């Protein structure tokens, strides 16, 4: 009997160990499954976060593209407005010169006046050619060359009927190069030396524009008020009044 009991004890012990081993395997599999579920959940959460981040980046890129489009449109409209204004002044300048060319030439000195004291007559053809050359350079946006051309013109022909116009466009050529100091200096010659010319009022407007660009609002306001006071019935005065209303 004793050997039988021992055999039964051994068998029971083996079954117990086998069952324990089976339980250990089940627990391990359960832990692995739990770990897999947690890992997959974490990956899923990260994927959703990355997808949302990508979506935010895309929305921001779309907004940037929209704003860039608006900026390009506004820039184009501004450049177009500047071009229209420039063309207007160029056309006006041409019309004024045609009008001025129809004026009678000054008569020769008479009644005992000393011809030696009179100034020699200029060469209208040469003056017109030099002026047109500089003006065409300005039209072609060759502002550096235009400034040199207009500067040379007013030095060679200071008393020409085209001198006020040349001085005015000299200021515009400097302004086009973003040199407001030289632009103001040039336009100031128009407002002082050629104060009675049709360009004087426009020169004051140009000065006010430069002063605003330089942050000198008070000086710009004074320049605009000068236009209204000295040249009340000119298109420049209308422009000055409109600008003063906006301040």
Provide the CATH superfamily of the largest domain. Tetratricopeptide repeat domain
Largest sheet data? none
What is the total domain count? 2
Shape: rod-shaped
Helix content: over 70%
Please give the radius of gyration in angstroms. 43 Å
Number of strands: 0
Strand content: under 5%
Taken in chain order, the helices and strands follow as HHHHHHHH
- CATH architectural designation of the largest domain: Alpha Horseshoe
CATH class of the largest domain: Mainly Alpha
Please state the average pLDDT score. Answer: 77
Q: Give the CA-CA distance, first to last residue.
A: 121 Å
The assigned structural class equals mainly alpha
User: CATH topology of the largest domain, anyone?
Assistant: Serine Threonine Protein Phosphatase 5, Tetratricopeptide repeat
Helical stretch count?
8
Unreliable spans are 103-120
């Amino acid at each position: 009997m004793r050997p039988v009991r021992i055999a039964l004890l051994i068998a029971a012990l083996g079954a117990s160990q086998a069952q324990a081993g089976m339980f250990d395997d089940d627990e391990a599999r359960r832990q692995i499954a739990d770990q897999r579920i947690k890992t997959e959940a974490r990956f899923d959460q990260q994927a959703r976060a990355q997808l949302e981040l990508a979506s935010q980046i895309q929305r921001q890129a779309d907004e940037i593209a929209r704003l860039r489009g608006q900026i390009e449109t506004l820039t184009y409209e501004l450049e177009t407005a500047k071009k229209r204004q420039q063309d207007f002044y160029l056309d006006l300048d041409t019309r004024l010169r045609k009008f001025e060319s129809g004026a009678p030439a000054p008569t020769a000195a008479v009644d005992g006046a000393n011809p030696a004291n009179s100034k020699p007559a200029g060469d209208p053809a040469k003056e017109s050619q030099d002026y047109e050359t500089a003006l065409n350079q300005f039209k072609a946006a060759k502002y550096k060359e235009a400034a040199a051309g207009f500067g040379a013109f007013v030095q060679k022909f200071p008393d020409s009927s085209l001198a006020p116009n040349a001085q005015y466009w000299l200021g515009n050529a400097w302004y086009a190069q973003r040199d407001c100091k030289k632009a103001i200096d040039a336009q100031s010659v128009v407002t002082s030396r050629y104060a009675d010319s049709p360009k004087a009022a426009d020169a004051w407007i140009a000065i006010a524009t430069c002063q605003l660009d330089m942050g000198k609002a008070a000086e710009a306001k004074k320049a605009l008020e000068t236009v209204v006071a000295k040249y009340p019935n000119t298109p420049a005065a209308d422009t000055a009044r409109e600008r003063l209303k906006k301040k």
